Amino acid sequence: MFRFANIEMLWWLVIVPVMTVIYILGTYRRRRKLRALGDEELIKALMPDASRTRPAAKFALLMTAVTLLIFAAARPQYGTKQETVKRQGIEVMIALDVSNSMLAEDVAPSRIDKAKQMLSKLIDKLENDKIGLVVFAGEAYTQLPITCDFVSAKMFLNNISPDLIRTQGTAIGAAIRTSLSAFGSEQSEASRAIILLTDGENHEDDALEATRQAKEKGVQIYVVGVGKPEGCPIPVPGTGTYRKDKQGQVVVTRLNEQMCQEVAQAGNGLYVRCDNTNTALKTLQNELDKLAKAEIETQVYTDYQEQYQSFVLAALLLLIIEFFILPRQNNIIRSWNIFGENEQTAK
User: Fold this and answer.
1) Does 181 fall in a domain?
2) pTM (whole model) above 0.85
3) Cα 320 from chain centroid?
4) In principle, which of 88, 105, 137, 231 could form an S-S bond with 165, CB 3.0–4.6 Å?
């Protein structure tokens, strides 16, 4: 298994595109100034040793070396030893509504972004538990099978958007059934729970029947209502407008608290509304802490070997090459014609 021990260092990669833009703008300005001095061919003849390709090659080598050094600073590691680790925890499947109505902004920054922020904080607290991720709209799909890999869970969570599912709607029943399947057929002594985050609107299937099936299997369902009952319009990303119905009227989406409460009650769980505070997160965490924990086995990599040396050596080699490439043509090695400049000079 490959990983970066200091993954936050990868943010420094933003330097590369910024420096590239600065270099391109600087090159353009220099050429514009040269053209302003007179005829371009005459200026070339007056500067026979000037090279266009060498500075670009030097810059490309330098940026590649910087990229490799940033990767090295992030400490790439490769797992070589896998062990079975036993923990005391529970199993939790998270079902997140990704229908278009979750783009509504009655909670900041939007319903779906607020839900993702809350889940990210919740995942940080589920240290010894197993988690999985289901996304749903008019259909439901398992985005991440149940696992102890919290890094992957947060990565999948960050990439979730309404674009994942084209079929619109709010198939809560399908989300619950998909979550149940994700637990697997094996019985577990650890408590199992489904956390459902939705606005409950445009409900299309028999959610209560699916909830009863979950209850029969000993799975509790907690529902987090995202949004406000008074509702608000649904923005269309990138347009500055709102969604409209077939009659041209702006669509207003409202949190269906009644449906959410019925599902939570039937699932022997709890309903809580997610707003612009952390109340929902604290309440949900307290409820999960009450569930019975049992020994959970998982396979994890416990022995990692550092791989940064290869990146450093490659960067050092590129910097050496960049150092020996002069910005102007060299009379001693001109006959090598590495950059294809002799023909240009002759012309």
Assistant:
1) yes
2) no
3) 36
4) 137
